[in-house]
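Provenance and format

Records in this collection were gathered into a single text stream. Each protein contributes a sequence line and a token line. The two records reproduced below are adjacent in the stream.
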Amino acid sequence: MRLNAKTKIGLVLLAGFALFAVIGPWIAPYDPTERGGDLLQPPSAQHWFGTTHLGQDILSQVLTGTRGVLLVGFVAGVVATVLAVLVGIASGYLTGLAAEGLSAVSNVFLVIPALPLIIIVASTLPGTGDWTIALVIGLTSWAWGARVLRAQTLSLRRRDYVQAARATGEPTWRIIGFEILPNLTAVIASGFVGTVIFAVLSEITLAFIGVSDISDWNWGTILFWAQSQQALAQGAWWWFVPAGLAIALLGTALSLLNFGIDEFVSPRLRASAGTAKVRMRVGFTPVLRREGGPGE
């Protein structure tokens, strides 16, 4: 796979966030919950991102909260992707009552509004830590990916090589694992990245409205306290801008990765990106010609 500039930028940004998620609590200059005498101070040499109304260091809160955001995003993405692959491919390849039942289940989850369902489930659970939030989001966010994989599987199961494998007596698990699944890798990866974006935004939303445990630091918790203490009305822009920029940068990194995966999947997108050219001829099917290939 040839990486373009957008994918490289996305990978660099995501690697930076992953690094901060690992070492953030260790390199934070202060305890994020520690109160100090500098109340609601703007950014300075002592407090790079300023302080809260209790004198807490906002930079330490942002660094410490990175781990929770990425943990929830990637755990929820893995859970939702695994369910989407199992349900989507099984309902697309199998026939009869089993396929119809799996398709009906995915349709039910698809029409239920995801975020209100997550809020209701998370608010009724006794514990709402990062792992609980991640599992709730993952278990309620797989339906769209399952529908996409089902549609792709329905197309692949009619291909000649799949029919040949079935005719030679290959077991179902081998046909799915070696004939169908490799052709869905890019679609699965794109769905995973999209689910991570949704999970991150959902987790921040839950923290911002106070559904999740506000004692666990993440970017949504910072915004929750900033909103509850009317930071905007007091002109304390430094209280909410760093967390907002972190959310925007992480979303940008994941979106750039998703664009790169889409270009890898679609030849037309690769052509528009300049990695290949579409050569049109009257009476013939359009073909892709690589840069520097024969006939250049």
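Adjacent record:
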Amino acid sequence: MENQTTLYTLVLSGLSDLPSLQLPLFLVFLLVYLMTLTGNLLIVLLICTDSHLQTPMYFFLGTLACLDMGFSSVTIPRMLFDFNTQQRLISIQACITQIFFILFFAVSEFSLLAVMSYDRYVAICRPLHYTQIMHWKACVLLVLGALVICFACSLVHVIFALKLTFCSVKPLQSFFCDVPQLLLVSCSDTFINVFLMFLLGISFGLVVFVLTFCPYIIILNTIMKMQSKAMRSKAFSTCSSHLTVVFIFYGTCFFSYFHSNAKDQSAVDKVASVCYAVLTPLVNPLIYSLRNKIIKTSLKRAVCRMLQM
């Protein structure tokens, strides 16, 4: 058997090979990153400083904003670095580290969306018991429990990814490291890695999917039985922002990971990756701020306080 040279660095294909596009893309994604940090940080600051927003619903929203900032910070700075240097080289250790944080933030966001669905279920279907069920200790435990489970799931993938060897100079068809692309360029037996992806993806993903969407079946049934049109409108408004974020995140992730992986689909893969890894953390605070009267009122109060200083 011919000896194969073990590689310790990988190559990212990036978004474009055209030199003329590197600077425009750098400026566009730098602007997107700054807007993402600003929007999500503003949400967190409003929730922390405004007593009207210190409720379980906004505690979960603030946690979602923190996850969005972390998610975008794992992918976009690396992309900006590659636009600037045009080398696109990344060490195996750095690649696997990036994979861990991408998995952690992505899976944590899925889990948090499920927790937020449960919060909406209790608020609409069991309003008289809301404060008893969704007290602060329960909220913190729900978030911490979800984060611990997501940390463990991400760590499992990373532990087995560290056992892989790489001897192919074929670039990863993405602008960041991800498990499927990493397995494609490995010269090791990846059966256990693929099996873990399938097992954890189906078991954990199915549970989170059911916990996210099943409460809305009961919620919609409860809303339709409400006598007052104003009450129905208020109930729909409290759910619409969350459902919009859920459909955007699930839609872009599912399209990115479950559509055809043919070679001629690499450009489509990159567009889908940009949507869920870059644009979703940007639009989440916009959706919640533009569709939420309480946050808009809180923002106006904050601006008025700043102008009076």
